[in-house]
Every structure is written in C-alpha cells, then in structure tokens.
Amino acid sequence: VALSLVDQGVLGLDDSIGLRRPDLPVAWHGATLRQLLNHTSGVPDFILSEAAQDAIRASVAVPLPPRALLDFVKDLPLRKQGKYHYSNSDNIIVGLIVEAVTGVPYDEALANEVSTPLGLTQTRLPVGPERPVPFIHGYDIEDGGRYDDVSELLAAGWAWASGGVISTPADLNRFIRGYVGNELFGAAVAA
Description:
mainly alpha
C-alpha cells in the first residue's frame, strides 16, 4: 500500500514519522518511511514487550486498536537506526501513516491500492479471530497427545498491518506476481 502511494506521489520514502504522524513519540519523529519499510527505523518491536504479551493473553479474541499497540514501546529507547531489526511496530506505523494520508481505514486502503487492482477477491484484513471458510487449521498439541484447534483463537487485529492479512494461495500468487511485476508501483519505486 505504502509503495503504491509513493508511486502516486502521495507519500515519499523520505517522509518522516514526525511529518506524517506527529502524534507518535517525538523520539521516533526522525525515522523515515524508507527506514520503516526496511526495518531500520530503530523503533522497538511492541510484540517483544512483556506488557503487550500480557495484554494479548488477557484478551486473545479482542485486540487493542492499532495505535494502542505502539503504547507498549512508546517510552523505550530507539534501537540503533540504520541497522536491520525486524519490528512489527514499523509495520503498524506504516499502516497508521497510510490512514493519515488517505483518510480511510487501512483495510480500505489495502483494498483500494492492492486487492482491487490485482483482483485479490479472497484477501481480507479482519480484526477478530474468525476466519473465512474454508481455511487451513492450526493445532496445539496438549499433554496426552490431544490436538486442540487454535485456528480461531487469536484475533488478527493483534497483528493488523504487520501480518493480519488473510488470503488464499491463489490470491497470494497473484499478489507476488503483481508486486514483483511492478503492477502496484513503477520500477523507480521498486529500485
């Protein structure tokens, strides 16, 4: 979504968090969209916070709003900028930036900029734990060898723009072909 908006001139790779989301912590303001997308922003990963993990365990089926996910790390120091550190927070911030510049919820921007242009009819960004049927099930093996279906245990909203998308293999194939084939953005943005 973000790269499509860069291609359209709505966003720039060197736009800072401070420019696009001044409501986020001042310590993060200098990080750019490019750094967020490359996971070199230094913003700590909210999912590594014990408080975030406690919140998820306390409410697996009902996630906090995306902006609130960042509150778990808002007072932590930045990691070394310019060095790769995967951070789910980076993806959440990108989603929030997309909302700020488009004026629509991220799931709508995802549909407008990616799903509709590529014909991804079975791709969604749900909030809750329900999955569209049919879906591949995931299991947890309990003591005694009992398998518990945990497929619809965790609300997708806990990941949101950092992995909450649900799709099919056919849509995933169309997405990859469109992404690498520059169907969503031009070669200049891809470079």
